[in-house]
Amino acid sequence: MHCKTRTRYKNDKILTNVAWIADAKDSNGNSVIDRDSSTTSSPNVNRDNMENYTGNSSNKNDLDDDNYFYKGEQDDDDFEKLVVKPVQKVFDLELVKFIAAVSKDAKIDEGEYLTDKIQMEYIQGLLRLQLKMMKSKQNTNRKIKCDWSPSNKQPLLVNPGDYVLYTIRVYNAGEVDGYASLIKDLLPVGLEFVETTDQTSEYYGIWNIDKMTDENGQEREVISTDHLAKGKGKELNSVEGDANYTANLLRALDDSKNVSDTEPKNPDYRDVQVLCRVKEQTNKVLVNYAQISADTDKNGNEIDDKDSTPDNLPKDGPHEDDEDLEKVQVKGPGKYNLVLVKEDKNGEQLNSTAEFEVTTNGKTETKK
Predict the structure, then answer these.
(1) How many Å apart are CA 105 and CA 109, to the nearest integer?
(2) Which residue has the higher pLDDT, 267 or 9?
(3) 144 partner at 20 to 30 Å CA-CA among 72, 252, 299, 354?
């Protein structure tokens, strides 16, 4: 016989399962009386009122005691008991970062997206991976995105002076509603933050800029935002009952429903965007990290993420699911090799030396 517990308890709960012989017959099919078992005290009689089958309080909770017994127990009945432990729901936010657009100026119009087909297919592939759920019976393995390593991301080719728009997306992969109350983005040397000039944009003025010195002694920009925190962004100045009162709340993953990228989203996610400009002039790969640096439950109280340590950037690894990176590779200056050939009217090459002027970076030289 297979049984399944169907109720969650806040504290340890002992469940007792009792079995008994309800009736006995002889070889002729006639009812007989068991010589040493009384029907008046059987579990069948007491199933709705178990005072006489409640056990010895001194050892009732001790599952290792071989001599524990229950009052009223006879040799035609027996029991087993188990302790149901309370299920602790886990809080787990995940972060994904990707490049949304590249532009020659700070105003990125709708439709001005990546022109590199290979890179576009790669990024779209990552986005598809984000919505794949890895099914598991163990809550510890609940995941939204596949566990690709950030090192597998290929850099996107950009030019010096290009503007790069990044999208930072936060998912709720856990069983508890909550907020991503602080997001940080560590910018590399050669990439600078640009404040959008569109004051109607949802992301206008949401980023704060700080400086830090990394492990190599280089000063770097660290930008941060609490735009998705409780009471911030869309929730600002709202009161209970307003449509935006929980606009930033990331609702828990619902395993019983299909994955959906439309409302109601499952897994639930929120986005912020940041615009940067490429300052680097040489052929170099620029890597910037984003991370959930603080999170709270639905009431705004601090809460521990089950598998992430907040605010522990910069670092080379290991990487956690509350952080992600993106890479751009700056196209360096091109190299030119000019060859001049002098020919006569018949196309025959002449051996005489020709002189010509070459101008490089504003400086003119005579070459032969």
Answers:
(1) 10
(2) 267
(3) 299
